[in-house]
Amino acid sequence: MHRRILSVATTMLATAATSLQAQFLEDLPTPPPRGKFGEITFSGGNLAASRKTGEMRATGDIKAKSGEYRFFTKELTRSADGVYFFGDGAMLTTCSNNVDDLHWKLTGTFMYETDKAITAKNTWLYFEDIPVFWLPWMYYPLNTNYGFRFLPGYSNRWGPFFLSGYVYDICNEVGGSPLGLGGSTYFNLRQKNGVEVGQTIRWRMGDYGKGKIKGFYAWDEDYDRYDRHWNDSSHYNYQNWGSDVDRKRYRLILEHRSDFTERDALNVKAQYISDSHYLRDFARMDNRYETIPVNEAWYEHRENMWAAGASVSGPLNDFYSGVARLPEAWLSIEPQPLFGLPVNYESQTRAGFLNRQFAKYGSTDPMYRYAPYLGLSGRGADYQAFRADSTHRVTLPFMVYDVLSIVPRAGYRATWWSDSGDPDSEFLAASGDAMYRGIAEVGVTASARAQAWLNNEWQHIFEPYMDYSFQDVKYGSGKKNRNYIFDNYDGSVDWLDQFGFEGRGLPYSWHGIRPGIRNYLRRADENGNTRPILESDIYAAVPFRDEGYIKRGRYAGYPKDMKDGFYNRHDCVVPGAILRFRPSNRITISSRTEYDVDGEKVAYADWNFEHRLTQDFSWYIGYIGRDHHIWEYVPSEYDRWNYQLSNIIRVGFEHQVCDWFAWSPFIRWDARCDELDETGAWFDFLTDCIGFRFSVNYENGIRRIDMSKQKSDFNVGFAIYLRCLGPSSMLDLAKF
Q1: pLDDT value, residue 133
Q2: pLDDT reported for residue 367
Q3: What's the CA gap between 68 and 86, in Å, rounded?
Q4: Helix or strand or coil: residue 499?
């Protein structure tokens, strides 16, 4: 239910040679080039040079140019090593107007290192003829996005704000060196929240990888608003995301990846936060795309036919829910001939200590987090177990008359848990009993493939298929205990897990067929290369077994007689379709839909339409809808917390109206609540060298599925950027 927050802020230049972006816009360890730079060309003035040393001196009215940048100076020298020096009072600009009519300029003393960097001293930034900013010193690498960032704006939540930062090289990070160290320093002011400071250190270690560490500290003047507004329905009410908040707030991030060899990789990602509100308050887009921070360290080794690895992961803060792997190892064997026979064998095995942690209210409150305001108490819903899971499968593919492909298969999956849940206790408390599950599967897939050409231009591929599966599930425990669910290796947790469409067997007995038809339409160009026009897959799952189960409450998913050693879903037909249509390079249509026949509703829908009407105009419309349970046991009597429900329509376009004006509005509509979700737009006013961007967005107050509320928010922003560099993407600019 989190909303997409499109920032109204854009990049503002504090200096002519600096891309001023927001605090959140991190330069990469190996930044992309800013443009084409090279040897300076110049004209005018009196020239004296040495052919032997390459040294040069010029005086008079001198014009020089490198890439998009123009210099005007009275004195120009070049050293023996090719470095250019522009004397005091020189000017730098990207404006194409006459020197007396520049839109912007930098004045000062400049040093230009060919295709490397510009260094300036005693520098003033002018817009038209008005001085607006002074810097005693500035270093601007030409092949990076280093420099100052300034971002002013207004938000209902923050009030007026000013974000600033400086991104820099510490040692040898310029030019794509395999070794390097860089940094970013931030200082942010928010009228309601006060001061926030931050620091980033980036590193490149050659074959040992690259990474960064980030830290932010805020002295929040409005930290107690959650207590003040807890019972105020018009303000913030985080009933499902609460944690203690004090004045001192912080965020620490560590990321590192090493590809030691072509076959070995190590990845580390960790984040520790002072409270569960920090991301929402200070890093909104980070919170939208990663509502619960990912903390993991994994190592992987890959060979041609197998791969193995191990991981340690889980939430570092107890006010977040998640599964901790302490650790978990895995081995995957790709399909390969068995003992030289025409039989292929494949397997997946994993084992580890797992701890399912549910969010707590504060760090010491033992109360189960989902509904603390209702007074629910007890041991909580946390559980732990050692789990080993191993799947083995053999297949025997063969062809019938070179037309029909037949792939019989047989497999077995074994899962063992060191502990299980007692359904008669509150929140499925641990029983102390180990539990075993065996899943035997046999099946066969039959498919045919036919293709035809029309006029040697259009290729149509038609591929009907039919899959039959028989799966028998037995639980080794003679009791009515239920195995713990950590992820979809233990049970189907999402609608798309139904009937094994996502690749893993279901944790209940069933048999049935999965028919489908794939179609591919391709068009050949004059060189004989084919371009995909249409790709579709229309399918269904049709089970033949229907065993009743309890649909709602604490015992959801159990057999109705409660005596069976395994539990079953209510079997129903699940039709679906996947579509991707590209009638031209300008139009893309894509969708995935699945229908719940039992509930007589669309359970999952993701539809998108994108159209670049002209070079200057493109638009899109999309819809995302979900209406189904998360197929996990419900740890609370309040079923709504384990439910996916959303109906969001989004529409927008981008239009370059003329040489001096462009704009892009968007709207998100909540069809479920029949109300506005979010709307906004940015507007660009352009000269030959400068872009002025004004942006605005409004986020409607939301009601979460747990009935908590959040106040509406309104944001505006203004930025100035160099057209030769372009504005940063709106996605990046939305991270504040």
Answers
A1: 81
A2: 39
A3: 17
A4: helix
Geometric angle at alpha carbon 292, from 287 and 297, rounded to 5°: 120
- State the alpha helices, DSSP H only, in 166-303: 225-228, 278-282, 284-289
Superfamily classification of domain 41-142: Lipopolysaccharide (LPS) transport protein A like domain (2.60.450.10)
* pLDDT given at position 282: 86
The whole-angstrom separation of Cα 498 and Cα 614 is 42
Amino acid at 319: F
Question: How many CA atoms lie within 13 Å of 525's alpha carbon, on the beta-carbon side?
Answer: 7
Q: How far apart are CA 254 and CA 293, in angstroms?
A: 12
Task: Give the residues of the chain that fall short of pLDDT 70.
Answer: 1-39, 115, 141, 143-147, 172-177, 226-243, 285, 287-291, 359-381, 423-429, 477-480, 493, 498-505, 545-572, 629-643, 702-711, 724-736
Instruction: Supply φ then ψ for residue 240, to 5 degrees.
Output: -110, 5
Indicate the pTM of the whole model. Answer: 0.74
Question: 402: buried, middle or exposed (CB in 10 Å: 19+, 13-18, 0-12)?
Answer: exposed
Phi and psi based region of residue 284 (left: phi greater than 0; alpha: psi -120 to 50; beta: remaining): alpha
**HEC readout, 544-568:** CCCCCECCCCCCCCCECCCCCCCCC
pLDDT at 443: 93
Quote the CA–CA distance of 86 and 57 in Å, as a whole number: 10
Q: Hey, what are 135's tokens?
A: 């810097």
Q: How many CB atoms lie within 10 A of CB 427?
A: 19
Q: How far out from the chain centre does Cα 670 lie?
A: 22
